[in-house]
Amino acid sequence: MSVSQPHSGQVSRSGSETFLRILFGVFMALLAIALTFLPDPIWFAAVTCLMMMLAAREWHRMVRDPAQREAADRRPIHVQTAITGLAILLSAAALLYHQVIAAVVVLLLGAVAAFVLAQKRDDNPLWHAGGVLYVGLPALALVAMKALLPQGQLVLMGLFLIVWSTDTGALLFGRLIGGAKLAPTLSPGKTWAGTIGGSVTAALVFGLYIAILDFSVVPAMVFALGLSVIAHLGDLFESLVKRRFGYKDSGGLIPGHGGALDRVDSLLACSMVMALLVFGLHFNPLFGGRA
Question: Measuring CA to CA, which residue among 181, 192, 166, 185 is closest to residue 242?
């Protein structure tokens, strides 16, 4: 029995997609680093809100009731996105003025408004309302770490390194080793080798980062291992939602990466956990530095 070979066009498309993935990945990483270390948090907040608004648009489009998806009138989805975007913008603005309670209240009001609008159209109101919090709370977490922590830029850089190295390590080890699937029904491309490799990569990269800062390396590596598990779970949660509503990707906005939601799914979960640890438990994610 002969083994069929991939068509040359398929190979070319695959190579082109990999190149675009790397190119746009590097660009987005450099942009995030530049914004993180800018002294004024307003630019970081603005781009964070924009990215989350794009993710919110994809979420509201994805979780629509099938009957609503087929409707000719697309205005309700734009209204849902506008509600979420406005709630994120106003809450982030409140945070920049250190009004934490007001920021949370605004976001909750946005979720209520999204629920009421979706309920009137019988269009999965809990999913739409949940989407406001799903993308809005991580946006607040990121802005809060930038604006409210004395060394927020170092904390955010560490967070980004853990998330990026988890994703990159999982991709590389998954392709090089392959093997048993992690969750074949949710995400057929994810393997145990990639998952473990991503976590180990995150631990090594974050350990090196903390070593450069001359802080405690070993506990930092253990922390990175734990947070990388959260990154994997965040990725799997979005995969679960996509399978639930019949989508492969949340969108096609970013070449080689899918949609904005596909790009930030791990970050959404990790930023919330990091913010809860830092602000709720007064945890020091720099392991020796003053966070």
Answer: 185
Per DSSP, the three-state class of 215 is coil
CB 199 within 8 A of CB 228: yes
Gap between the Cα atoms of 141 and 118, Å rounded: 26
Identify the DSSP state of 252: S
Per-residue three-class SS string for 105-123: HHHHHHHHHHHHHHHHCCC
Q: Within its chain, how far is the Cα of 257 from the centroid? A: 12
pLDDT of 143 reads: 97
Query: What does pLDDT average to in each consecutive run of 10 residues of the chain (291 residues)?
Result: 38 56 81 94 96 93 76 67 94 95 96 94 92 97 95 96 94 88 84 94 97 95 97 94 84 67 93 97 87 60
Question: Can you read off the two tokens belonging to residue 197?
Answer: 């490799």
Cα dist from 212 to 200, 206, 208, 217, 259, whole Å: 18, 10, 6, 9, 34
Instruction: Give the whole-angstrom CA distance, residue 59 versus residue 261.
Output: 7
Beta bridge partners of 181: 191
* CA max distance for the chain: 69
Whole-prediction pTM: 0.89
* Three-state secondary structure call for residue 97: coil
CA distances from 65 to 74, 161, 214 (A): 13, 37, 52
Task: Report DSSP letters for 148-201, one per residue.
Answer: HSTTHHHHHHHHHHHHHHHHHHHHHHHHHH--SEEETTTEEEEEHHHHHHHHHH
Tokens of 275: 């913010």
- CB atoms inside a 10 Å sphere around CB 115: 17
Tell me which residue of 188, 205, 182, 202 sits closest to 270, measured CA to CA: 202
